Amino acid sequence: MTDCVIRTRGAVKTYGRLNALDGVSVNVRRGEIYGLIGDNGAGKTTLLKAIVGHIFLSQGEVSVLGSENSRSLSSARRQIGAMIEKVGCFPNLSVEKNMEYCRILKGIPDRKKTAEILEVVGLSRKAKSKCSQLSMGMKQRLGLAIALIGEPQILILDEPINGLDPSGIHEFRELLKSLNARKNITILLSSHILSELQQTATTFGFLSNGKLIEEVSAEQLAEKCADYIEISVSDAEAYAALLDKYLSDENYIVTPSGKLRLVAPKRAPEVYSRLAAQSGILVTGLEHHNRSLEDYYMHLKEGAHA
To answer: What is the pTM for the complete model shown?
Structure first.
């Protein structure tokens, strides 16, 4: 776990009788885009606030860049750029002046940084515009620009695509990917728009009712959400031998119930039934399953609350 730039251990946050976080342990590794998935009220914002130091945990630990004690943790948090909840700006000031205010507040001496960051996030043409005149997408870009002041190693973004139209979502997604790839910035972002996170994140954490129910890489998730065909046949062993001989590029398993499951099948369903029929094997059932990320998340939640 030495490459973890953010780590929580048994994070608990209570508000009266409400457990906003209930023993959450996450591991965010350097260079990842970590997608925190959960319904509204699942605990996403509370966790992000605890990591950046906006709130204190009731129990548990937070580590940033290997720092855990209060003094070193405070220093390490200066390497975090955050956009949590609404973008904080002065509506009657220009984009440029808002950036300058934040630059001075953070003690960044180089005035050139404002123009450089506005160029990176695509706001150069809006530098003289009042923030009150910005579209939702432009305000989100401004929030990202403010978070990037000081060249942080880590970005923490809470629901950054909320309220954006499809074009805005696409542009923001590509911007995050570019920052991650070109500057090696580790990104932790939350969203309840699962299909969007699936196109962005390299690791996923699933939160429900304040609990982390799974942490999984994008590769592992792709396997779990892959299409599969489940075939029931009169002779599973003989059919498996046929697959090995004639369709050796297929990935299959034999389930405990004796069915054959073809993971991410490369052919149409009728090809598999025809293979069986040509060899005198009876197909008693064939089902094609397609599980989306939303389906997978719902399945996880049901299992966690059973």
So the answer is: 0.83
